Amino acid sequence: MEMSTEANSKQIDFEESVMKKLAAVISASLLLASAPSMAELYVGGKVGKSWLEDACTTATANCDDEASTAGAFVGYEMWDFLSIEGGYDYLGKFTADGLNDDKVEAFTLAPKVNLPITDDISLYGKVGGAYVKYGSEEDYSYLGAAGIEFDSHENVTVRVEYQTITDANNEQVRAMGNSATLGFVYKFGSNEEAAPVAVIEEEMVEEVVEETPAEPVVETKTFETQQLGSGNFKLNSTELNEESAAQLDELVEFLNTYPQANVEIVGYTDTSGAAEYNQVVSEKRAESVAHTLEEKGIDASRITARGEGENNPIASNDTREGREQNRRVEVTVPAFEYQVAQ
Prior knowledge:
This protein has 342 residues and is an alpha+beta fold. The chain has five helices and 15 strands. It has helices at 2-34, 242-246, 249-257, 275-295, 320-326; strands at residues 40-53, 66-77, 82-96, 99-116, 121-134, 137-153, 156-169, 174-187, 202-207, 217-223, 226-229, 263-268, 303-307, 328-332, 336-340. An eight-stranded antiparallel β-barrel has the order 1-2-3-4-5-6-7-8. A hairpin with a 4-residue loop joins strand 4 and strand 5 (121-134). The radius of gyration is 30 Å and the shape is rod-shaped. It starts with a helix and ends with a strand.
């Protein structure tokens, strides 16, 4: 009896320690969640394979430590790289030490950190806490997960994820609950509204060269810079969307009217992600606008396109709004002289 009392005391101390650490993780996560004012909500579900580690011992008569799993989750994307995510996991039914075809469930909460690889693919990781129901027992645990996300269509993202729950305890064993899943995510409001395309206004500067009947009149013509934001491109793509391509028609008409006019296209990005990757994105978006003008009949020799990556920001990269303004393509027609017919 004395040994049993000592074991119970140690178990209680362990559980209190885990609960305190889990509370710290949850408090930090909620603090992060309250910071930004433009969080985006998303929901999702997942299915896959689950298995327990260290749930069976040599004394286990009938060990069945593999099952199918399903789960659901909800999250807030606070910044492009950071979200807070909570979920429910049904890990399945198992037969092991202290389990007799009993189910294992977990309620989870963790921050999620994203690392973009391309426009459509990103890696992510999660470290947080879980409340685990292990047969007739309940316990608090740590949670870790890693995965890869693929942007598929507009607001839908596909996930492949590995997750582990470190401590699922009963009186016989301390097990780990693992799962490998395929998940689908729906993001509310993540489809960026197309940024308004600046209206192309003809700015005419007249320079009269000696008003004599024999001398022609020369005008200097130019246009305001046209700015295309990230919303003018297909979601998570460097390809110009159809609506924005159509809004280039007025510029094309002007270039056809004045064959001596040329056009300069420069792409820019914010500072999210690697600088080398951002440089490539800025170049591809500038080339996409150039390609659209070529498709509309403008000769490639009249078009100059380049990317400047993170250079020349027009707003702060510390805010979501500022980063959206910095993700842009500027289209400029340099001033040129035009001789007016008499």
